[in-house]
Structures are given as structure tokens and as C-alpha cells.
């Protein structure tokens, strides 16, 4: 009886520990599509008025803290690297990161392309 009780307590404690970290950032490198949105001048989810170098991460997928510096790289040529800061979140059905039109162009693509494969690290 005591062994079953101890096993149950250990199981419950380990589940509690596992779920208590679910709101932390899930990765240091996140791969997927990068898109653009015109949020410049609007208020982001983190309460900051968004600038050209602010970005939105995918809601519930990866949750870095507000203001986190994200290094963004493309997988296709021209292999540009930019730095943006996480100050917004969004549903982003086809992407892991949304950047401003200026940041998207800094990656080496016209906004008419709309989407590019890449990743960000932090």
C-alpha cells in the first residue's frame, strides 16, 4: 500500500513539473516559414508600439519573452541574416514568424514573394 502511494505521489509530482514548464520558450532554434505583415505603428500583444524591427512569433508554438532578440536567417539564397525583436504574437497559420515589410526586404526578398523558408534563433 505504501509503495503504491509513493508511486502515485512521484507520478503526480513529475506531471506537475512537466506541465509547469509548458509556458517557457520551447526552442532555441525554430524553423519554418517567415512571412510579413504591416504592423508598424500598431500596438503589439506585448504592449509596445511596433517598429520596423519588431516581429510576431506563432501563438502557442514558441513563446520567447517580450523583447527577445531573434536572429533570422533564410534557407534559400541570398542567405541574409537580420535581427528583430519579439514584441507581438499571432496565429500565423503558415508561418513561425511575421516580420515587417522592411525586415522582409532586408532578408533579400520583395514583399510580393510573401513567404520564405527560414529559421530564427535566440
What does this structure look like?
The protein has 122 residues and is of the alpha/beta class. It is 20% helix and 32% strand. The protein has 2 helices and 6 strands, in the order H-E-E-E-E-E-H-E. A 6-stranded mixed β-barrel has the order 1-5-2-4-3-6. A hairpin with a 6-residue loop joins strand 3 and strand 4. The N and C termini lie far apart (48 Å). This is RlpA-like protein double-psi beta-barrel domain-containing protein. Keywords: Signal.
**Spatial ordering of strands, largest sheet:** 1-5-2-4-3-6
C-alpha termini separation: 48 Å
Helix fraction, binned, reads 10-25%
The largest sheet, given as strand count, sense and whether it forms a barrel, is: 6 strands, mixed, barrel
Strand runs, count: 6
Q: Poorly predicted ranges (pLDDT <50, ≥5 residues)? A: 5-26
Number of domains: 1
The coarse silhouette is globular
Report Rg: 19 Å
Oligomer: single chain
- Please count the helical segments: 2
The CATH class label is: Mainly Beta
What's the CATH architecture?
Beta Barrel
Q: Structural class given helices, strands, pairing?
A: alpha/beta
Q: Output the helix-strand order.
A: HEEEEEHE
Content of β-strand: 25-35%
At the fourth CATH level, what is the homologous superfamily? RlpA-like domain
Per the CATH scheme, the topology name is Barwin-like endoglucanases
Mean pLDDT: 84
Domain RlpA-like protein double-psi beta-barrel: 31-117
Protein name: RlpA-like protein double-psi beta-barrel domain-containing protein
Keywords: Signal
Signal peptide: 1-25
